[in-house]
Amino acid sequence: MRFDGVDPNDPKTLIDRKWGVTTKSGQVRQFKNGPLRALGQNPDYRLRIEVPNKKAEADAYRLLFKSARVKKHPQIEIVIVEFK
Amino acid sequence: MKTAKQRYCLVIDARADEKVGAEQRHALFFERIKSVPAPWGMGNQVVPRGPTFRDGDFDAIGFTKFFGGAVKQAMLTYVYRRTLDDSGDSDDRLFIDIDPAKSDLHQFAQVVIPRFIEAFDGYRAECFDEQFLFSANKVREGEIVARSPEPTEVDNLRFRVTEVMPISFFDELLCRRAFNRTPAEVLERMRGMVEHARLLHGGVYLIGSTRALSFDEAQALSDEMTRTLLG
Q1: B13-41 burial by CB neighbour count: b if 16+ within 10 A, else e?
Q2: B184-197: per-residue pLDDT in tens?
Q3: Domain count of chain A?
Q4: B114 in a structural domain
Q5: Do A71 and B95 touch (CB under 8 A)?
Q6: A69: which residues sit within 8 A by CB, 6+ positions away?
């Protein structure tokens, strides 16, 4: 698995920066077979999904629900950040 | 001012079983919905492709165009029949997102969802305003009865219900595991406080309302249903 970065304050928090998120079947499949599987195998790690705006944030919650069937995941947080 | 359109999410969870292959469940589902009234049945449509598991132990198949109209997204997900365990991770799922303003909610709740639960052999189903997804991650203000605790691990959907959605189905095993009651006992407990409740597919089916509720109304209804069953 490759991620976009690691939180400088917490090496066990991985960063996945997404300009846009969809909930199409391909992305749901990739997210489930990739990051979610990796987090399941490494329960002490966390994933921070960084998105640029509220629309992408909503889409990220939809992606999380369709791939993990949870409204909230203990290892995943979704945050809006300013992309440079 | 333009307001965001509402979107209702239906999800049906079905225990995957090595005796029933993913391809077989897929074919059976579409066979069984043949007689569901339009636009929710098969009509003259071609059955969407079945699961292939080329990328891993999980496959997702989009079939939004199959229904068209009020359906914003339709997807089936399947797990590979290997190393299955008694957890929600080993479930197949049906997701359908609809625009409630363009849908006959009464028909959807009373006819379509029950038929889909039976066709997919679901053990759990929920239909809710997708604002529930977003609000779960925000701090809710005021006194609420059924606050979801901060999760420390992913809830096992086959054992636990933390929040009862406005339209819900629980099969017998889940009723016993989550509520320590039979479906008939759940039905009796919910009678009078929901618009409709009946036994279905060996479980209990609850319709809080078939009206397009505002999110605040839906949340209040969900809180009351949750308190009645879990409080």
Answers
A1: bbbbeeeebbeebbeebbebbeebeebbb
A2: 999 999 999 999 99
A3: 1
A4: no
A5: no
A6: B11, B13, B88, B91, B93, B157
Domain that holds residue A58: 5-80
- B152 touches A at CB < 8 Å: yes
Quote the pLDDT of residue B137: 74
When divided into structural domains, chain B yields a total of 2
User: Given pLDDT bands bounded at 50, 70 and 90, which one contains residue A1?
Assistant: confident
Q: Is the same domain home to B84 and B132?
A: no
Q: What is the largest CA-CA distance in chain A?
A: 34
On chain A, the residues whose CB falls within 8 A of the CB of B157 are 69
Contact B56 A68 (CB under 8 A): no
Chain A residues in contact with B55 by the CB 8 A cut-off are 29-30, 33
Model ipTM value? 0.92
Write the burial class of residue B42 (CB in 10 Å: 0-12 exposed, 13-18 middle, 19+ buried).
middle
- Checking if the pLDDT of B25 tops 90, the result is yes
Q: Is residue B49 part of a domain?
A: yes
Residue of A nearest to B96 (CA): A66
Residues B226 and B127 occupy one common structural domain: yes
| Domain-terminating residue out of B51, B69, B102 | B102
Do residue A28 and residue B13 have CB atoms under 8 angstroms apart? no
Domain hosting B78: range is: 7-102
